[in-house]
Amino acid sequence: MSEEILNDEDEFSFAEAPVFDIDYKGDCAYEVKVTVPVANEVEQSKEMLQEIKQDAEIPGFRRGKAPVKLVERKFSKAVKKEVVGKLVSESFQKLVTDEDLKPIGYPDIDGLDDDADRKADEPMNFTFKFEVQPRVELGKYRGLKIERPVVKIDEEDIMEAVDNTLKQHANYVETDDDAEENDQVIMDFKGTVDGEEFSGGSAENYPYVLGSNRFFPEFEEALAGSKAGHEQITRHLLNKSVSSLDYHVSQLPAADLPVGHGCYSTFNNRKNGPTK
After folding, report:
1. What pTM was estimated for this model as a whole?
2. φ, ψ (nearest 5 deg) of residue 157
3. Each residue of 20-51: pLDDT tens digit?
4. Which of 105, 131, 157 is the last residue of a domain?
5. Residue 273 resides in a domain
6. Is residue 109 domain-shared with residue 188, that is, in the same domain?
7. Containing domain of residue 206, as a range?
8. By Cβ atoms counted within 10 A, which residue in 80, 92, 126, 257 is the most buried?
9. CATH code of the domain covering residue 248
10. Are residues 190 and 99 in the same domain?
11. CA pseudo-torsion sign 137, 143, 144, 147
């Protein structure tokens, strides 16, 4: 159904008002059975046929001069389809206006699939299914007192934030020292379970920062004190099976903040503020 079902600006009046059987299903859902009396379809069909007749070209007649019966015979299917659509749209407009409903989107419409077989003297019968905006009733909120939370920031919080900022902007340079927390280890590793490799258990040139706790603790402990070129196999109990992790450290960069880089020249002067 087009947007006209909610936004038809043309003035419209029913020859005989449609009948609505409204069933509120709860949770903002409505199901409405609609009966549109035949008089509406008859009147709308006459008006539309007259409009078509003015421009209709029927062999043997000048434009606009053909009898309505001939025009109806040629355009009856198209007219019926157009009239049914308009009556459905106007019925929904009348429903939401009369009941002061605020629908969300367009309704689902059931019961029109077999409308082509409906006899001329039978009313239209179909069902709207739609949801409406929830109605919210405000409680007593005037005069409420709210306690404003006070956030206390001490020196430890500031130092932690500064250190985190420094780590984010730090460069990594190779070192001959043993690997320790915050150092980055570039390594190749291969994990196996019962001698078989498993998905996601191996990588090459993988950068890992000690202390980030992204691997299991035993692996972190095995990496601590490593040097470039170091090779080791560690074992870890995983799902009651012994898995081995074979790794090779190819580079050992340590975190460092070069002089003049960013706001701080070294980790040591973080407390004194940015260098000028």
Report:
1. 0.49
2. -65, -40
3. 999 999 989 999 999 999 999 999 998 888 88
4. 131
5. no
6. no
7. 171-256
8. 92
9. 3.10.50.40
10. no
11. positive
Q: CA 44 to CA 29: how far, in whole Å?
A: 31
**Is 196 within a domain?**
yes
Return the HEC string of the chain.
CCCHHHHCCCCCCCCCCCEEEEEEEECCEEEEEEEECHHHHHHHHHHHHHHHHHHCCCCCCCCCCCCHHHHHHHHHHHHHHHHHHHHHHHHHHHHHHHCCCCECCCCEEECCCCHHHCCCCCCEEEEEEEEECCCCCCCCCCCCCCCCCCCCCCHHHHHHHHHHHHHHHCEEEECCCCCCCCCEEEEEEEEEECCEEEEEEEEEEEEEECCCCCCCHHHHHHHCCCCCCCEEEEEEEECCEEEEEEEEEEECEEEECCCCCCCCCCCCCHHHCCCC
| Closest listed residue to residue 182, CA positions, set 122, 121, 252 | 252
Tens-digit pLDDT profile for residues 204-258: 888 888 888 877 777 778 778 877 777 766 665 554 454 566 666 666 666 665 4
Q: How many residues does the chain have?
A: 276
Rounded to whole angstroms, the Cα distance separating 41 from 133 reads 32
> Are 97 and 204 in the same domain?
no
In contact, 94 and 14? CB cutoff 8 Å: yes
- Inside any domain, residue 150: no
- Considering the domain architecture, whether residues 9 and 121 belong to the same structural domain is answered as yes
Dihedral sign, Cα of residue 227, residue 228, residue 229, residue 235: positive
Phi and psi of 120, rounded to 5°? -65, -25
